[in-house]
Amino acid sequence: MKNINYALLVLFGIFISSCSVEEIDTTSELAYIDLNANDVEVNTRTTSTSIKCLKKNLFDADGTNLGVLIFTVRDEDVKIRFKTEGDFKFTDVNLSLKRLNLNELDNFANETPVDADFNHKAVLQTKNYRYDFIVDKTQLGMYNRLAAHAILESDKGEVKDVWTEGWNSFILADFSYCGEWPNAEYISSTEDIQYFAPLTAGTSGDYPDMGTSSDTVSLTSENPVTEGYVDIPLHFSDIPEGYKSVTLSIDFKDLDLHTDVLTSGSNVVEFKETFILMDSGGKIIAELNENHESDGDFTWEYEIPDYVITEVDYNDPYEDGLTLYARIGASLNLTNGNGVTVKNTIESIENMTLSGDLVIK
Question: Distance between CA atoms of 198 and 204, rounded to whole angstroms?
Fold first, then answer.
């Protein structure tokens, strides 16, 4: 219970090549291998159940195809084979393969690989037509940033530099078609918002025009009830195509959903708040009121309806994300006494995120 002396201070809480899948029952291949990315050349034999699912060509500076990169996804790891034939053999192989930061999905291809990006390297002691790297699946994901470079040399001493598709650049390695992978999660967030929940119709409206300053109201026996609200836009930028199963999470600070009984002398005031989540057109998606189990400071999670995400227009240059609206409502009721003055104080909604699976096809 919050006590007041003549004036009440009330706290108001608020994610390529097309996948040609070939099942391989067993493979028994003699190759030079970098075992678990230790960059040590080993001559060994491997046998496993696997899915050969992705190929990327290797080109020289003139655009001549001189080799291929073959990805084989197995139960515990991924084998990446550099392969060539004819007059040229590999002398150096360099591979950059890292789990893609999905929040940078639109920007990674603009970067240029540097030497430090190549986390798997080998200088062959003997020139060879192929070389394998073995990378543990725990280091990768369904979607990965790829760059591959190699040096080829012929028996006549001619040297060629080759790169994967896209000379000296990163490309996407999509393993989502290849075996089992955990979901790729994409998270979008927005800034914390502090506000005052308006106490009257006259001070109600859209944030930040309303709800950014304190509100004072007098309750009397003749006018014992007052209500107000503020509509707060929650803007989440960079919403990607292929976003699925999206959940909204909000930390509420002092959102009084359950009725508080406030006293000052003989005056008794009931105070409560509500929260309404709306889509961009004002349609109600969810509502929290006194029937909700939590009150005050708590975290709320809610699965956003699919239509809200699919209605995002990715071809509209003026639409850079998704906007939801939060309506915070407040009501006061003088149930006993002759009169009292009530003043609101600041509340907040924090750590607001959208999280969901990202599927790129």
Answer: 6
Task: Answer whether the bond into residue 208 is a cis peptide, omega within 30°.
Answer: yes
Model pTM score: 0.60
Six token digits for residue 264:
């000052």
The model's pLDDT over 150-171, given as tens digits with 9 standing for 90+, comes to 999 999 999 999 999 878 899 9
What does the domain layout of the chain look like in residue ranges? 7-15+186-358, 22-177
Partners of 3 in beta bridges = 263
Nearest to 267 by CA among 10, 6, 9: 6
Strand-pairing partners, residue 262, are: 269
Residue with the two structure tokens 């080998």: 122
* DSSP 8-class letter at 155: T
Tell me the pLDDT tens digit for each residue of 34-62: 433 333 333 333 344 577 788 999 999 99
Query: For the chain, give me the number of helices (H) and strands (E)?
Result: 1, 26
The residue type of 90 is: F
CA distances from 100 to 120, 122, 135, 188 (A): 16, 23, 15, 16
